[in-house]
């Protein structure tokens, strides 16, 4: 064990002990229950932060610093993918030229989701491949970048893939420094940092994520849970396709089971509506119901889905043929419902992700008997093994989230593969240069993470080890910080203005338990960061609270209520903004105003003897801390882009960078 | 490399990939299966008896063929996998969807 790791572990243990000591005391002895409306939110927020700290400590426990990588197999075949949708040609050109110049033998491809002639011309000029969506995708869900990559997987055949965003310019040695790890047959993926060159040292938009692309990824690596971050990663094709196949089996099984369940509901309802004269129809419905049960039993006994659905469809088709003559006139009324069911199979989600509630909603309609049978057929067709609602049946890159990387990585781990993190900057990228683009990007990452949390919660994924589950959960947990931030703003404001204290008493007990924990927690960051800047991250984890809250609520609405996410691609070019966009940070400005106002009121209350010195000064410190945290927002609004900024980075191939600046935070 | 033989008898196409069905060969099998379906034969048996190696990309090609066949109203069956190939089926659980048949002649019997 290195001395650094030993020191880290000591601090981790101490921080955890002090933290648990404090929070236990808070829960048992010091919640001011009579002021529950603020006391309960505060203790919950504090507990949230405590768990966050414990998860961070666990991440640091196995921090893994890899030295030089093993030498690559010179014969390893590699496809380099540059994904683009609407980026300017010159930007893609820079990346493509650098990709061609990568030393290890490889083929370079532009994955052009915009299907643009200028991209085709660029590819021809550079003598590299140009891949657009194949004809199968016409009229099918496109699944954004995940779909783009899945499409390209079918057009190429290298053993390994290097994935690059259009604005990530690779170094010539990127493959020499990563491929060697794959000599271990269990390694599926190697992630390298994302580092941005168009960011001044002060990093006003918090673009770099030095704590994430560093200690956090190294800690996750130690638990075999290094994350895939969408770009600057090398992946073993076999692992990725295997994930796609396993997922196809999983989704199909789940989809067929759900369809059969809904089929039973539809049929039973139709059966009840029958009058005494409808003997023939009743018999037919009973037959179909029997076949639904039989199909389900066959699946439960391990019957192959392909055989079961094939037989089921054949039998139902036969029963329907017999009924058609009897019941033609009722069909028309049902067509609408049936069309809706078929659309379900073609909707944006696979049926496995459609909620049971929405299935029930559709199937709860009144249907005539023949309509019911047709509905059942449509239902089963919609989720049949052929995946009629998808362009290609096997989707290796996960499509359950707007950020495909985390979900895919979790599935790779679920099949027992290893991933690892190589902490060396091997590509130079571009970060958004204006506030609006930055907010859009952060929102997208956070939404993607929340979608995965709601759709495939890591805590319940059987293939993952418990440490792996917690490593994924830690990142998701960090995105819930927006709710805690609200409480951390409200609590001092409430005390200073109306004098309600959420804590029983500000005794010495309180200080002796809290202060050492806060100090140790900061020390933990200090030791973990090993000289990398962490303050920006800490600021943004609180200051972007409206973004984090929106991400969680919109992802919840999307996953459970079927609402749109209002997702947009991160703009790669700085917008010509001459106006300062204060409107984008209105909630933060309101919060700052409230805090400042509360401070003034607090002083007045103290002066007129309505408040205690201790309580007022403590809450004043809190207010000042909050204001210092939020001050980053002012800087961000005033930032004019990299070219306009006065302090260029001092030739800085320095520390790495960011998907979640939240984690880069605490 | 791989050779893919296709023969059609009584409305059923028998496709025989000979050799290693890996990521390089998968594309050719996918195209061969698509061609069979496009040519009007919707029932296909893929005879894996001569396939010495199969990876996930090869499985992907089989699933693509299955999709094409089913959408055309037919079906795709696989037959005679070697123990090595069968192990790949079991590893990914694909045998729960696509049950391999013991021989080609009876592949469409059930």
TrEMBL record, chain B:
Gene3D superfamilies according to UniProt: STAS domain
All copies of domain STAS, residue ranges: 2-110
Residues annotated as transmembrane: none
InterPro entries: Anti-sigma_ant (IPR003658), STAS_dom (IPR002645), STAS_dom_sf (IPR036513)
GO molecular function: anti-sigma factor antagonist activity
Domain of life: Bacteria
Family: Belongs to the anti-sigma-factor antagonist family.
Protein name: Anti-sigma factor antagonist
Protein's organism: Nocardioides zeae
